[in-house]
Design brief:
Blueprint: H1 3-6, E1 12-16, H2 23-39, E2 44-48, E3 77-81, H3 93-98, E4 101-106, E5 117-120, H4 127-134, H5 142-155, H6 166-176, H7 182-191, H8 195-207, E6 209-211, E7 216-221, H9 223-229, H10 239-244, E8 251-257, E9 263-270, H11 276-282, E10 286-288, E11 291-297, H12 300-315
Parallel strand pairs: 1-2, 1-3, 3-4, 4-5, 7-8
Antiparallel strand pairs: 6-7, 8-9, 9-11, 10-11
The structure holds adenosine monophosphate and manganese (II) ion (2 copies).
The site of adenosine monophosphate has 15 residues, from strand 10 and strand 11.
Length: about 325
């Protein structure tokens, strides 16, 4: 079923993605909003997303995203994008629950299909790649193309990861043809860091620990560290990826304290040998084989030991 077909009969549409939205989540939510605005201007579209980095603010529709999620609204149709389970919708779950019809478009292999209509493609690089093929390419405008391009770029590590296929690059090629300023788009959203972000990366790298014959690397950041560096959670993108490219490392784990003291978000990246999704799932999280996450309460040192235990079987 295409997006155009899904919209049939709907007058109010809601869109939401996962908590702590990343490039693919922001890109897919805003792309869908912009596309609907272009093909069905009679539909009222609301995007519910938690606050995200202001490097995405220039994208069309970013300013209208509702971060508070305190208004009451019942949607004819509700799209969940880039989100593998209902808990990860956070406060936006209430709009999912009350909507007349729900559609989930996602590429997390841990997604069991919790909406009325589920389009789940674990082989797709990103939700934005999926959306590209669900949209009518002729009706897809510049603003939508920018959002989709950014989402694909983020989930492929700028077209480097093994999830980046011919199908991905065909989509990317067509998006570029819409006239995108690709270099500026990537610098603005992916590569450019504030001075504070570079400092916090430096801090994590300086304190990083190698374990298990150098096969695992752990980085830790507490709330206190974050405050000392003057950064917030949404400024931590890219740190785990830098840990991952350490020579000899099979999996990189970045553990950072959330807004709840004593609660840590665990962000993991694998190289050739390990399945980090399996470890994340064993702690109630999820993700992909080479990129997954979960949340664990406790002291960082204990969390590291627990994670090492779960990696143990895979490391043999
Ligand atoms: P992150 O490390 O936050 O960049 O997440 C890596 C991948 O794992 C992304 O695709 C996330 O959507 C997914 N992921 C992260 N944390 C969780 C979680 N607690 N539950 C399910 N999926 C997660
Ligand atoms: Mn995501
Ligand atoms: Mn994604």
């Amino acid at each position: 079923m295409t997006i155009d077909e899904m919209l049939s009969g709907a007058l109010t549409v809601g869109i939401a993605g996962h908590v702590h939205p990343d490039g693919d989540c922001i890109g897919s939510s805003l792309a869908l909003k912009n596309y609907i605005g272009a093909v069905r201007p009679d539909i009222k579209v609301t995007v519910w997303l938690e606050e995200f980095s202001n490097s995405f603010d220039f994208l069309k529709g970013a300013g209208s995203a509702d971060h508070d999620m305190d208004i009451e609204q019942v949607c004819d149709l509700f799209f969940v994008v880039d989100c593998g389970d209902i808990e990860r919708l956070g406060a936006a779950a209430k709009y999912f629950r009350t909507a007349k019809k729900t559609v989930c478009i996602d590429h997390h292999m841990t997604n069991g299909g919790f909406a009325d209509v589920n389009i789940i493609q674990p082989k797709a690089s990103s939700t934005c790649e999926m959306l590209y093929y669900l949209m009518d390419a002729d009706k897809l405008d510049y603003a939508t193309a920018e959002c989709l391009y950014i989402g694909i770029a983020f989930d492929t590590g700028v077209f480097r990861h093994t999830n980046c296929s011919l199908r991905t690059m065909n989509a990317v090629g067509s998006l570029i043809e819409k006239g995108l300023d690709t270099e500026e788009l990537l610098d603005r959203t992916f590569f450019r860091k504030t001075f504070a972000q570079n400092r916090v990366l430096g801090l994590v790298l300086e304190r990083a620990k190698l374990t298990d014959d150098g096969q695992l690397i752990f980085g830790v950041l507490t709330q206190e560290d974050r405050e000392a560096c003057g950064v917030s959670i949404k400024d931590l993108d890219g740190i785990v990826d830098q840990l991952r490219v350490t020579e000899g490392v099979e999996a990189a784990v970045f553990i950072y304290e959330t807004m709840q003291p004593g609660e840590y978000k665990v962000s993991m990246r694998g190289n050739q040998k390990l399945n980090v999704a399996a470890v994340a799932v064993s702690f109630g999280g999820g993700g992909h084989i080479k990129a997954a996450g979960c949340t664990i309460k406790g002291e960082p040192e204990d969390i590291i030991e627990k994670l090492r235990e779960r990696f143990f079987d895979q490391l043999m």
